[in-house]
Amino acid sequence: MANKIDPSWLRESAAFSRPVIREIQRAAREGIYDIRGGGAKRTVPTFDDLLFLGASVSRYPLEGYREKCDTGVTLGTRFAQKPLELSIPITIAGMSFGALSAQAKEALGRGASEVGTSTTTGDGGMTPEERGQSRYLVYQYLPSRYGMNPVDLRKADAIEVVVGQGAKPGGGGMLLGQKISDRVAGMRNLPQGIDQRSACRHPDWTGPDDLEIKILELREITDWQVPVFVKVGATRTFFDVQLAVKAGADVVVVDGMQGGTAATQDVFIEHVGIPTLPATRLAVDALKDLGMHREVQLIVSGGIRSGADVAKALALGADAVSIGTAALIAMGDNAPEYEEEYNRIGTSAGYYDDWQEGRDPTGISTQDEALGRRLDPVKAGHRLANYLRVLTLELQTLARAAGKTDVHNLEPEDMVALTVEAAAMARIPLAGTDWIPGQGGF
Asked: CA Rg, the chain, in Å?
């Protein structure tokens, strides 16, 4: 009989851990890079590394729910004749029909509308389900131009020119053939069942001067009525934000590397871009340097999960945040009641990220009609609305504790940092000191 190995004797390599070994073996076996959905799984500094300083003697807190704390935000005040007036500073990020089912797109619209905020089309065009249920719908204008037409542009409440996404800045996404149904193929003018890759850059412009021309074209198509957003993946954030503003954006959206994706190369998700925390501060610095902070609104996204995340983003100077993965989870993605079915496709509830395969048991990231019917868009929309309400209540709770009558009155001096890295990235003092790394003092 073989000797039984005591695991306590074994020492795992930090450089060649078991997941690393498995990936090397998979690459050698298959000869192609790994593709998956979801966001970065590596540990990076997040808003969790910041803490609020509640009011007491030197600051006076507001009393519970009895004293008003406003949450409304207006997006697109720079040039648009009809800016978006939202009840809460939490919006739904772009997620395409194709990546998601028609039922999921409808549920996003229902949930956002129930609490007075906006949702976004994503790559692939506008569906009647989403437009019909969305009080405010932002139309994404992407490099692929899938489903783009002037008629739908004019139906939108805002247009978002997507230059980059946090999970894959500088790269395009994937939509595998098994998710290109008759309807998806028709909307995107693609052959059914053939793998599709979204482009990494717009085909008709190559720089900020061309972007300015494109924004003017979009304003003429929509008669200057609706705001034009520009979305960038968080990389060279300071310069990208300034160029977007100079090109004429009403709103800039900055997506950090924790942002999710339906499918792209794992090497992109884990090794390109910067976290949402430093990207927020850099974007605010860029706007202030131009004298445009608050005149051009800033939305940040990428790994927003709680009302505390929202509050900290706003305290750093953002006007609003956007959520994607969290919205899908709220609607039912990775639901534990489907554990056995997740096991059958080689994963587990809470770990499922193979959205590109279209086998999602919850009916959210699929084009399989039978699976899609499992998702009740009314119930899923209400779950999303409940989640958004909780985020808003948490946001208000923290703002009141800091003595603020409006969540947008939160400011950097209301926070301290727990780590040297977070203090340096956010330019907020390390807790218990007045030291900001790189600025001297102790």
From this structure: 22
